[in-house]
Design goal:
Largest sheet: 5 strands, antiparallel
Distance between the termini: 28 Å
Number of helices: 3
CATH topology: Pnp Oxidase, Chain A
CATH superfamily: Electron Transport, Fmn-binding Protein, Chain A
Strand content: 35-45%
Number of strands: 13
Bound molecules: flavin mononucleotide
Structural class: alpha+beta
CATH class: Mainly Beta
């Protein structure tokens, strides 16, 4: 049985909006995703990505990535990062042209979204395929921007 994207049943879920930043053969990339916290100790967080995403290749090759929890005033970043593929477009440059800023991560070679509600730096711990998505797991470091509230996504709306 299928439970597709944008199905009225799928739209009942309320999620925060994450932006995965990664580095690959086409340069830096950014993609929108919904995340799951799976363990406090060790600090494990899972992201579940479709097989065709450019971000999947970047994560497999570099084995590291940034997680940036979108702040309430950053929904435009999610619209761009979640609508276009890094295999065809330079989303990072498009987002910079709109006035948003990126900073270099501390422990990995990836850009991070400045002023996100949360920035976390990851090294790949495990990859597991479930149906049409691949789950990637682990966190190494996290810093929070406490003034910013996270963006919430429900029923296809921010
Ligand atoms: C709010 C939002 C949440 C999304 N969540 C996911 C997700 O959890 N997994 C996924 O594979 N795609 C998700 N997407 C779609 C990807 O962000 C989109 O396919 C993107 O273009 C992939 O970029 P890439 O090919 O550069 O990696 C989401 C999109 C939006 C707008």
């Amino acid at each position: 049985m299928e439970l597709p994207w944008n199905d009225p049943r799928s739209n009942k879920f309320v999620t925060t909006v994450g932006l995965i930043t990664s580095e690959g053969v086409d340069g830096p990339n950014i993609m929108a995703y919904e995340w799951t916290h799976i363990s406090y100790n060790p600090r494990l967080i899972a992201v579940s990505l479709g097989h065709t995403k450019a971000t999947v290749e970047n994560m497999r090759n570099s084995k590291e990535f940034g997680i940036n929890l979108c702040a309430k005033d950053q929904s435009i970043l999610s619209s761009i990062a979640g609508e276009y593929s890094g295999s065809k477009y330079n989303k990072i440059e498009a987002i910079k042209e709109l006035g948003f800023e990126f900073i270099q991560a501390n422990k990995i070679k990836t850009l991070m979204v400045k002023y996100a509600a949360l920035n976390a730096e990851f090294k790949l711990f495990q990859e597991i395929t479930f149906g049409d998505h691949i789950m990637f797991i682990e966190v190494i470091d996290a810093t929070q921007n406490s003034e910013k509230q996270p963006l919430v996504y429900h029923d296809g709306k921010y």
